Amino acid sequence: MLAGEEGIGRLDFDNSNLAFFVGNLALAVILLDGGMRTKTSTFRVALWPSLSLATLGVVLTTASVGVFAAWLLGVPLIYGLLLGATVGSTDAAAVFNLLRNSGVKLNERVGGTLEIESGANDPMAILLVVMLTGLLQSADHISVLSFLGQMLQQFAIGSIAGVLGGKLLLAVLKKVPLVEGLYALLIISFGLAVFSGVNIIGGSGFLAVYLVGLTVGNGRVKQLEAVSQVMDGLAWLAQAGMFLLLGLLVTPSSLLTHGLEAVAIAAFLIFIARPLAVMICLLPFDFRWPERLYISWVGLRGAVPIVLALYPIIAGLSNSNLLFEITFTVVLISLLLQGSTVPLVARWLNIIVPAAPAPTTRFSLVDNTASHYSLELYEFLVQAEKVKIPAAIVQNVPSKTVSTPQLVSLVRDHQPIIVNEETILTTGDRIWMLLHPEDVEDVAVIFSQEASSSFLLQNFFGEFSIRGDAPLLDLAKAYGVPIDGLDPQDTAEQLLQRQIGKTLVVGDRVRFGSLRLTVREMKEGKVEAIGLKLQDKSH
Length: 539
What we know:
The chain is α+β, with helices and mostly antiparallel strands. The chain has helices at 16-36, 43-73, 77-86, 92-101, 108-120, 122-137, 144-175, 182-200, 205-217, 224-249, 252-255, 259-281, 289-297, 303-308, 310-315, 320-337, 342-348, 391-394, 440-446, 449-461, 472-479, 492-500, and strands at 361-368, 373-381, 387-388, 406-412, 415-417, 424-425, 430-435, 464-467, 509-512, 515-523, 526-534.
């Protein structure tokens, strides 16, 4: 905006078609990158809630904002609904970047729902905007059945093409040898080809390109670590370029013409329409009230609504500039108000899960999915004082086998250190190890004992750990919890499922007498470990 016609740059830019074209390509790149960073394990707990928000949630938001905007602006209802549809979807670029760079880790149920929703709700918003724009352009009426048919077509073609395209790209990546830097370009060019092709045949290109990224990102490609770093930079570049053009396109002084109305519509969207839609859509699912409130708050609007607001301008509709200016203001308010408070609200609602110890760097060395055998090189940052490297690891240097974790190097003050069983680690040391991926979490804990014991174990998960199938009766007897009404076959996992729901995630917790039980580790949908914390009965 500062570079535009009323800013210091004095650049006169009013090419809506170019901005629309660049915006769509940039969003495709951002969705591709977001899909690559989404784990398919989150679909276990977040798929159906996300689809509910991505379909019914968008419709409810469109309807409520549309009625309010039509009344406030004094325009026909269909124009209000068009504005509601324009701001009806959350923005994938904003959600992906803010959640991953906010410094907080959400539980899988909340984080997965927000990310999948933002990647899947664009088709519904685009369909509503296109159909409402078409109605305003012609006198023809579109039936409910026609609308539902087009919606199913968009989702079906986008889903099928996205999954099949992702599998094809995965096969190409595993078979075709390229210079490492070219793999990211291959992924982006393939993703954009799928995006364009699906749009041409009447499907949702946004959904398709997201699923391409999801399939590739979870496909155990050897080059994925290097690719993800390049993709991250390209996604940021796409986002910056898109917002630069959109900022040039807007005339700042025109935003003030209906500034008060735009602020009122933004407040209605943030505090009434979005929360109402979330509460209705999540009624059938196992979400705690703080989780529902947080999902409603992180309904971030970003570049997608601004790009959608270009549809009426390109179509030459009356009042199209009014819709664009209000949409732009709503997006600014959403990003400034909601975007800046993402970590604060998460802490206030107490839905943060402490991040588990993890490696700082990873490189794939051997990948053989056919035999389920892989080997990777990991770097760990030591965060504890006076920790010894386990003797079993030291003795494997320089073993020819890789059946157990193997130490490759210990680096201290940028110098390699000779390691033996007496070596004492200090904070800041960097350990390089050869590992199978399934051993990473166990090894990471060794080098993060201080953080693990002081915060993860005691403050959040509790002082002790028990198995998920631990009998409740034994637990009650050991800690003086009343045993009246307890079934001898009841387990700690069953107690959590009764009080929270069947789909548990790390961080879920319940009270059991004077104990607090918190899910600490999940494996294939089953509770592996539960943290146990003693509490005062008055707490």
